[in-house]
Amino acid sequence: MTSPLQGEDRRFDSAPAHHSRRKQKMLGQNFLIDSNISKRIVDSAEVREGEKVLEIGPGRGALTELLSSKGNLIAIEKDKWLAVVLKQKFKENVEIIEGDILKWEVPPIDVIVANLPYSISSPILFRLFNYEWSRAVLMFQEEFANRLVAKPGSKIYGRLSVMANHFVSTKKLFKVSKTAFQPQPKIHSQVVKLIRREPDYILDDFITFEKVVRSIFTHRRKKIRNCIKITFPEIDVEKLKFMDLRAEILKPSEIAELSNSIFAIKSE
Ligand code: SAM
What we know:
alpha/beta; two-stranded antiparallel sheet; disordered N terminus; Helicase, Ruva Protein, domain 3; binds S-adenosylmethionine; about 20% strand; Rossmann fold
């Protein structure tokens, strides 16, 4: 059921006058107003008793309310005003941090649940990979989610898919219409589940891998030979595999193999 007053708590409506629409936009504040969707997101996280849960950007508490009865919840909110109201509302059972997820040192966590501010989904996701957690249920813009879960051979398989695959397995759960939010975003959203795991390859040097991935997907229409020649001019590309192919058909394990060969040649 859709209720424009989810987070019916009127305290959230009494933000100071300087709390402009512009600021809301900058912070990606599209609040969930469909309680069925909130419930589906929280249920998908399958939080078990005693687990530590992190919510990023609790906003007006649509997910926080449901999560607060499940595990030990910490929620970090950048908007000062919302953080003040959330602290009052959830003072009994949630640790509300007023802060920026892009700067905060994330403690060890079991589960992450978030309807992320869209403009910084990518930096948030890659920052989270530096910390310890085992699964996450995250809502992204649909287009970003599709790129995240894309497989080799797909037109949208790229740097995001390969780098995320290094840390997690990904599964699309369900689509969320823009009408589930207030204010409504321009495009639909998609909920994705991420499970932390080791990749199915051994990497000798992560920095070289990142550089190779960036190189071959920046010029994805070019043959890999030409990309590698530009990024690693010191390397004799004739010693390498996959040179006549294009990046979009290489599996992450094959990109890792290429990266390991380049690293070995550079280390000679
Ligand atoms: N979870 C709420 C919901 O589903 O209705 C709000 C989601 S809204 C898309 C994103 C939330 O993230 C907003 O409350 C916003 O203020 C907050 N936010 C934006 N940037 C942030 C950051 N760098 N660190 C922490 N929170 C942030």
